[in-house]
Amino acid sequence: MTALPKRNLDKSNAQFQRALKRLPLGVSSTFRYWGDDRTIYVHHGKGGRTWDIDGNNYVDYRLGYGPAILGYADDRVDAAASKGMEVGGVFALSTERELIVADRISRMVPAAELVRFSNSGTEAVMAALRLARAYTGREQYLLVEGGYHGLFDAAMWMSNMDEWDLGSNQDPELVPYGKGIPPTVKQLAHITPMNNYERLEDMFKKHGDKLAAMLIEPIQGNCCSIMAEVEYVRLARELCTKYGVMLIIDEVKSGFRVGKSGIQGLMGVTPDITTFAKAVANGYPISVVAGREEVMRHFRYGGASHGGTYTAHSVSLAAAEETLRILDETDALETIANYGESLKAGISKILDARNIVHSYTGHPSMFGLFFAETPPNNYRAWKTSDYSFYDTMAHYLHDLNIIVEPDSREPWFICEAHGKDPSCLTDTLNAVERAVDLVL
Ligand code: PMP
């Protein structure tokens, strides 16, 4: 790798050494560790930019894995959150604002007939799966390769790469994401490669009558934003209906981002249960499990347990009310998509001028950049592709004050503030041009 004038990370590096003594790996989420001399400690974020404690100013396309849909420290949302603070936190009782926010969600997403709040994406998906089990009286569930649904044991399984014999009709073995996940859990789980219609039909033929739920992220926000084909999601819908299985569309990343009614609205597919989280409150912790009335009514005494001390916290709820109002009533999502399109066009111009073959996956508001003519159509295609060009480019981009995921798994997330600050686009494209030339 060619050397670049070094970005000064002295303070972050010193902080890392101090933090290492108290925090495992020096961080609070393992994915925030980027190496002993590259782990960034943030001073603050504003708009589409983040400042680290050394004073480096980055255009940020991670946006906290997506939540900052309007931009960091948005004045409108923060003012609303302050009002939420005056309410007083949590009471082990309900407040009027819950219904106001739930009504807004139902208006924006027709499949969200009834709504419950949680705190994180993990909690929402966990509740969704429990609800599906309570409703169907079944225990097993189907995952799609490349999807990510949170940190709970049932969600942390992937297929064994050594068994990816696409010609065979065998279900691949499931392997855990890491240690500490009991193998007994996997007895209830199945997994299938996305956009493989035959395997999906087969899966339902074999296991459909035992499945409580199929969990799918139609735009894989944790795998290069690879898209499910609309026909594939429709087939999933048909099979779920035929076999009495709950279709859970996980919109933790795509919800209120790719459109007002999420990816399900763009694809015209109605799930039984949906989960939302990231963009709901512009970064304040809140998530949503929503769905068909008949199913959602199983959240009751003697039915599926749901609750949590911090559920529907007054600060997060107030932030959600304002964020969703902005997303619903203004052209924020258009600004975001337009910026994404301009950014993609600008990157393509740079790459085309150097005859670098590339393609994009996903939606302009959360897109993946891929260095091949045809983008991957599922996790297997991505995992077996050569992503070294991207990874090296991402490394240089960090040194050039652009934050993207260090590898190509996470998409580039766009916020409204990027679109409102023309310097974000020019700074990014200048950096991309330099980074590409350094890789070449
Ligand atoms: N589902 C999806 C689709 C996600 O992207 C994530 C987080 N990246 C989760 C669930 C879990 O959300 P959280 O990290 O808030 O628990």
From TrEMBL:
Signal peptide: none
Cofactor(s) demanded: pyridoxal 5'-phosphate
Transmembrane segment boundaries: none
Entry keyword Nucleus: no
InterPro entries: Aminotrans_3, Aminotrans_3_PPA_site, PyrdxlP-dep_Trfase, PyrdxlP-dep_Trfase_major, PyrdxlP-dep_Trfase_small
Alphabetized GO MF terms: transaminase activity
Domain of life: Bacteria
Keywords noted in UniProt: Aminotransferase, Pyridoxal phosphate, Transferase
Sequence similarity: Belongs to the class-III pyridoxal-phosphate-dependent aminotransferase family.
Name this protein carries in UniProt: Aminotransferase class III-fold pyridoxal phosphate-dependent enzyme
Source species taxonomy: Bacteria, Pseudomonadati, Pseudomonadota, Alphaproteobacteria, Rhodobacterales
